[in-house]
Amino acid sequence: MANFNEDYYDDANCQYLDAVKQLTTHHQENPKVKPAKFFRDYFRSVQQGGHILLREYDFIRATPYNRACVLHLFWQAYKSVGQIKERLKVVDYHSLFTLLWPDFPENVVEEACRVARIINPLNEKMITLKNFIYSFQATFCLQDFLADAYKKFTDFQSTHSDFASESVEITKSQNVNENKFLQILLENNGCKPGKVIPTIWPTREVLIKMCNNQVFDSFEDFEKTCAESEDITLMIGIIPPQSMFHKQEEMSRNDETSQQIGLTTKTISTS
Asked: What pLDDT, on a 0 to 100 scale, did the predictor assign at position 271?
C-alpha cells in the first residue's frame, strides 16, 4: 500500500473513532473480547487496507486513505478477471463493486465510465478494465481536486472571450510561469485546501508534469489527462503504471501476429 503520510495522519482520527465504535459493537456481542487484541488486529487491517471490505459507502469514501484502499481492493480482486481487450458495461462494473461493498452507488461507477469513454469514444457502452481502472482512480480518488479544478477551469473560461484559440497558447507553454491555467491550479502552492478533505490531492510537482505541453480545449480534456497521467498513478501508488499496460498490449499484438504467421505458414505447407 502507498504511504499517505500527511493525509493518513489527517484522517487517523476517523480510523480511531471507527475502531472504538467497532469495539463497542463487538463487546456487546461478546463481552470476552480483549480491547488490546481488538485494536491491534483492527489497525493491522487498516495498515493492510482490508478494514474497508464490506463496509458502508459513507465509511469507505470518508478519507483519502480509505479511497486508496478501495482502489487497491478492487484492483486486487479483479485484475485477473478482465483481460486487456475484454469490455464490460456500466452495470457489470457496478456488480463487481457491490460484491465488495453492497451499497456502492451506481452513479460513482457511471462517472468513471464517462471519463473512460472520453479516453476511448469508439466504445460507448463496453469499456475495457484498463480504461475503467484509471478513470476510476481519477474520478474517485481525486474527486475533490477535480471539482475544484472544474470550478477554476470554468471561471477561467468565462474571463477569456476567445478561449478556444487561446487554450493552445496557455497550455503548450514550456515555461510554468506562462501557463495561466496551471498557475491557477497551483494557487496556494498547489496544495489542497486547509480543511481536511476526503480525497487525494496532486502535489505541485505532479501538476506541473501533468499540465505542461498539454492542450485543454475543454474540461473533458483535463479529465482525460488526469486519468491517463502516469505521474498521478505513481503518486497514488496502487495500480500498475499505464506503461505496463502498453507493454502487455504490445506483447499481445505480437503474439497474435505470430499465431497468424504460423497459421498462414501451416496452410501454405499443406496446400
From this structure: 59
Is the pTM value of this prediction over 0.85? no
Residue type present at position 46: V
Of the candidates 59, 54, 50, the one whose C-alpha atom is nearest the C-alpha of residue 14 is 59
Alpha-carbon distance 183 to 137, whole Å? 24
Neighbours of 65 (CB within 10 A): 26
Separation between Cα atoms, residue 254 and residue 153, nearest integer Å: 42
Q: From the CB of residue 210, how many other CB atoms can be counted at a distance below 10 Å? A: 21
Residue 94 belongs to what H/E stretch?
A: helix 90-100
Give CA–CA dist 152/132, Å, rounded.
Answer: 26
Q: Which amino acid is at 224?
A: K
Is the CA virtual torsion 73, 76, 81, 83 positive or negative?
A: positive
Question: Which segments of 101-197 does DSSP mark as H helices, in order?
Answer: 106-119, 129-136, 143-158, 163-171, 180-185
pLDDT tens figures, 118-158? 999 887 789 999 999 999 999 999 999 999 999 989 988 88
Quote the CA–CA distance of 261 and 255 in Å, as a whole number: 10
CB 97 within 8 A of CB 74: yes
For residues 18 and 128, give the distance between their C-alpha atoms in angstroms, rounded to a whole number. Answer: 35
Residue-by-residue DSSP string for 74-85: HHHHHTTTS-TT
